[in-house]
Amino acid sequence: MHESHEKELRLALVCYGGISLAVYMHGITKEVWHLARASCAEREGTPLTSVYREVIEEIRDRSGLNLRVLVDILSGASAGGINAVFLAQAIATGQSLDPLTAMWLDHADVEALLAPTQAPSHRFAKIWATPLAWMMANRSHTIDETVEVGARTEVREKLERFVRSRWFEPPFGGEQLLNTLLDAFDAMAKGPAERRLLPDGQPLDLFVTATDFRGHHETLRLNSPPEVTETEHRLVFGFSDHGRGTGFADAAALAFAARATSSFPGAFPPLMIEELDKVLADRGEHWPGRDAFLQRALPEQWAESRAEKAVLIDGSVLANAPFAPAMAALRERPARRQVDRRFVFLDPTPDMRFDFYGPRQERPGFFSTIIGALSELPRKQPIRDNLEAIAARSDRIERMLAIVAEIRAEVEAQVESLFGYTLWLDYPTPKRLAAWRKRAQVAAAGKAGYGHTAYALLKVDGAIDRTARTLQALGGQQDGQRLRTLGGQLRETVRMRGADRFGASLPGGASPEALDFLRGHDLGFRIRRLRLLARRLAELEQSAPRGVMRPMRDAIYGALAAYLELKRSDTFADLQDKADGDTGALLDMLAERMQLRTLDRQTDEALSAGFSALSKELRRPMLLAYLGFPFFDIATLPLLQGEGMDEFDPIRVDRISPEDARAIRTGGVASMLKGNQFNNFGAFFSRAYRENDYLWGRLNGADRLIDIVLSTLDAGARPDESRIAALKRRAFHAILDEEAPRLAAIPGLIAELRSEIG
């Protein structure tokens, strides 16, 4: 019989900009949606035929791993931002993504997007521009080589119409795009809906970037002069349902974010709130949460009474790969079982560059240099910094886990010498657990010597940082200066109370005020202890009989969920009006609200029951891990730079792009996509282009998602290559069967694909 254990594969999806390649990315996000639906159906035992469900069930049957796939963080810029918004809406509400497919295929067309004032008034308008259209169309024989015969006339006519629109003004209409987005939300709301695609309590977070064209002032502190002011242009619109399933966001707010992030310079006009106000008025729709949203989304502009006049342009101008907000969201993730966290980024054209001025040259020309400096380089560069930050975090966790494994035998010997054999003869009642835990903490502090003072101060600092972040979030001020000010005020309050006094000269190594502060505020210590216990449980489950450790698992993760709830700032939303008050009073108020001592007693009761349900052979290593935690924490907390653990496991990064999905074709972008023509505007000129890219998005998405799901297994437990290939073929044919009736413009491609897939 296979060992039984559980794991969550959590996907944080980062969607790049790509202009008309948004259609390709929609195909991928639709497969992500299908995967989330399949996992939810398998978990709840509801009917749903899906290759993804078959993969999840095969994993369970082959390895005993009960795998759940959760998509809980979404981040996007520009075209990727639109897809992230709609996928988030589908996950949060259980609505279908099919209406979005219709939006992309039917309405992401140059004729539908052209602003009325931009369309030529008659066929001879700006007729002298027609040769330019011919030149663009025939450069490198683009249309003849990449468009099926039946679509070539359509592309040429639409390209001519586009070039003949009024110059030096954006050709596409902002109101047209807003209406299209709102229509898609309406269609989703009117269509069939399932349940929310995440477990209760698991928050869904969405982040959409935009660029504040005029910017807002932020103050920086220096040595000299003491303060300087700089202009910040980056914006991130954040949305969350906080895991409660009581609503995600108004369609108007989501449409605002989608329209802002996709305001590609020169193609769409910048967005101002008056544009959305007009569109909603024309539609006869009311937006009751308008002012509250603007105050939250544009806090600096709102404070200066400038939110109504804010000018927003494309989110990819300064952040085309928005990893940072998704990484920050890890701080407030709950955990009920072992987690395999992935960051999956969608990059439709990994090697793409805007090639307005011909092929690459050894020495770039005048205009090439300007375009590269203003457009290409800012859009592409940020990814390396973010990926290196993820890698650094994962490296710290890997080192921490290696240290824990290396010192485990020594720590266990210390615990056994401290308690003797009587530890294994007595049942771990709640009272005994509390007494044993206190004794172990005193012993660990004594063994650490003067190093314990530094460790204790690091714990105090961590509690202050967490409190400062909570107060900052409650106050609605997200700038770094506000966070530093709050941190300084809290540290001064702690110092004045004597709550930062540690040392061997003090009884017990700490002042009574310091002990009281840690007992009332050191949430991180409790969470790290349970994380370590959960990690040890996952290791033991690999060889334990099926199901015998479930009571222990339920006890650990039930207790952990209660502590993690206190990391979420919205838990204290009712204190928002008091967030700017006296820091001493706020500290006392938060301690009273958290009631950590009460939670500790409840945790002792739950863990006591869990330990008692284990056999002596399994109880021993679990108790050693629990009581040995102070020794482990003293050794590893400095390595984690005081941050503690978020999801405890390293983050792995996966990419989905035409270059990576090689099960059908191996030629990358050139062999699959058409929307990358005309500097990524190509799909706006032909439905055949859009159908092509959408279909390849689904196929590439299925190819890579099956790889990603199976990679959560140890190498020896994965199916062999022939079985994986068979699963992918089934997925590909299912997609073709589903889409063939809808994709009437590309019958030739569908026939080719059926032959290639086999």
UniProtKB/TrEMBL annotation:
Provide the alphabetized UniProt keywords.
Hydrolase, Lipid degradation, Lipid metabolism
Q: Which GO terms describe its molecular function?
A: hydrolase activity
Q: What domain of life does the native source organism fall in? A: Bacteria
Which Gene Ontology BP terms does the record give? lipid catabolic process
Give the residues annotated as coiled coil: none
**Where along the chain is the active site annotated?**
78, 314
* SUPFAM superfamilies xref list: FabD/lysophospholipase-like
Q: Which residues form the PNPLA domain?
A: 13-327
Keyword Acetylation: yes or no?
Answer: no
UniProt KW Iron keyword: no
Q: Which Gene3D superfamilies match?
A: Cytosolic phospholipase A2 catalytic domain
The family database entries (Pfam families) matched by this protein are listed as: DUF3376, Patatin
Where on this chain is GXSXG (motif)? 76-80
**NCBIfam families, per this entry?**
patatin-like protein (TIGR03607)
Full protein name: DUF3376 domain-containing protein
In its UniProt entry, the species of origin is given as Sphingomonas pokkalii
